[in-house]
Write a structure and sequence with these properties.
By secondary structure, the chain is of the alpha/beta class. The strands form four sheets. It has a six-stranded parallel sheet, with helices on both faces. A six-stranded parallel sheet has the order 14-13-12-15-16-17, with helices on both faces. It has a five-stranded antiparallel sheet with strand order 7-8-11-9-10. Helix 1 links the parallel strand 1 and strand 2. The longest helix is centred in the first third of the chain and has 14 residues.
């Protein structure tokens, strides 16, 4: 596949890294010569210094032969125009744009991005995607990651195995026998810096991070089985009232009215604006690193502090101060990969990587075959994939134990007739089933082949 990426920042770099690793033909455009030099030195991609929306620059990058254009510059308008030019002049089949301004995405303008108006096939809002992830993490305390699939009926929950975890040193197959009515399957294990796709005979160890695919209604029970029975937060302090902080506060007001939220924002005008839009949230003007403001927010009574400013250092230091003053736990937004490595040592209970969220959304539309959803874990070591099985798929009709799947793929759940199906050796996949599985990076191509339509597959 030939892909052009407009924007060589953190998100553009991450997408280019993933796609070039999979032997795609990747070209990257950016106005910064330094960023282009950096990305071409590190990755097997072509780089072009220029404006991603200019026809001559797109022509140099080979837009006339491109299968996809992904516009992820810092500016919505550049991303929009790049897609328009790619469509009007070069007839690029698939166009993806990152859109940050929420006014573009308002429900009353839902037909704005369409082939008849502004020809963008996929719009990605990092703020909304990250905000939804924050809300899921709040709803499932004890999980280090939560993603939903299959019309929100199936969840992937990442769970840390602590020293008191009851299921360590127990073969996974035995777990299924001990808890036959628990709709959950361990599909991946992150241990000592490596991602393991386990077999039924493998065991969990203390310190492991287990990736469990389960029925959504069994997620809390699954967490409890792993020793995580933390109570859902009722008193929450949000640091930062930007697009993400405001979105999270507004969704909590709508969906969790029993929660009590306080929002701290350093910019006075923004604080006033957000205060006018929110009904039950207390908005305080001040710095997230001001101990007096934290005290004014009653941080000592907070169940959870969620740091969502656009500054990693403020997020980390603000959450550390909040923990020191009595907050029970902290969830922190961290953009810079270097900071993520020592987040735990800094007292951060959990962090969210917005780049990974955006890249996962892009990969969903890069993958071939009937791939409905993709979520990358551990910086791309593996992907949790939801895909629809077709009549022509070699998966259909055979018992799972008869399938000759390569090492590196583990099926976690089926979604059939709007219901969860727990897979075992006797389970047979039917046409139109949605399959949720974890695939190591080197097996993703094989997964694409398994779920391609007939003419592609043969």
């Amino acid at each position: 596949m030939k892909v052009i990426i407009c924007g060589a920042g953190q998100v553009g770099y991450g997408i280019a890294e993933r796609l070039s690793r999979e032997n795609n033909d990747v070209s990257v455009i950016d106005t910064s010569a330094a960023l282009i030099a950096s990305i071409t030195e590190a990755l097997d991609v072509r780089g072009y210094v220029g404006h991603g929306a200019h026809p001559d620059v797109l022509a140099k990058a080979g837009a006339d032969q491109a299968d996809m254009l992904i516009a992820v510059t810092l500016y919505d308008e550049v991303n929009i125009v790049a897609c328009e030019v790619a469509h009007a002049i070069f007839n690029v089949p698939t166009k993806v744009a990152r859109i940050r301004a929420q006014s573009y995405l308002a429900p009353e303008y839902s037909d704005l991005f369409s082939r008849e108006n502004v020809p963008i096939d996929v719009t990605i809002s990092p703020e909304i995607e990250v905000g939804r992830l924050v809300l899921r993490r709040i709803s499932f305390p004890g999980a280090t990651d939560v993603v939903r699939f299959a019309d929100d009926r199936i969840a992937m929950v990442a769970i840390e195995c602590m020293e008191d975890c009851p299921v360590v040193d127990t073969p996974l197959q035995q777990l299924s026998e001990l808890f036959p009515d628990l709709y959950a399957t361990v599909t991946g294990i992150f241990r000592d810096g490596e991602l393991i796709v386990p077999h039924s005979s493998d065991q969990l160890k203390t310190g492991d991070l287990a990736y469990v695919v389960c029925d959504r209604d069994h997620a809390r029970r699954t967490l409890a089985l792993f020793g995580h029975e933390e109570q859902e937060a009722r008193r929450i302090i949000i640091l930062g009232a930007g697009n993400i902080g405001y979105f999270v506060a507004r969704m909590i007001e709508e969906q969790q009215p029993r929660m009590r939220v306080k929002l701290i924002e350093n910019d006075r005008d923004r604080a006033v604006l957000v205060a006018d839009k929110l009904n039950n949230t207390v908005v305080l003007h001040g710095s997230a690193m001001d101990q007096r403001i934290l005290a004014q927010a009653d941080v000592q009574e907070a169940d959870l502090v969620v740091a969502l400013t656009n500054n990693d250092q403020i997020n980390i230091l603000g959450s550390m101060l909040a923990r020191k003053q009595g907050a029970k736990s902290a969830l922190v937004l961290i953009n810079e990969p270097a900071y993520q490595d020592f987040a735990g040592a800094a007292g951060v209970d959990a962090y969210i990587n917005p780049r990974a969220v955006t890249i996962s959304r892009v990969l969903q539309h890069v993958r071939k075959g009937r791939i409905r959803s993709v979520y990358a874990v551990q910086n791309g070591m593996a992907e949790v994939i939801e895909a629809e099985a077709l009549e022509t798929s070699p998966l259909v009709g055979k018992a799972l134990r008869e399938l000759e799947l390569p090492d590196g793929i583990r099926i976690g759940a089926l979604y059939r007739d709007k219901a969860y199906v727990r897979p075992d050796g006797d389970t047979r996949i039917k046409a139109k089933d949605r399959v949720v599985l974890l695939a190591a990076a080197e097996t993703v191509r094989h997964v694409e082949q398994l779920f391609r339509v007939s003419i592609q597959y043969f």
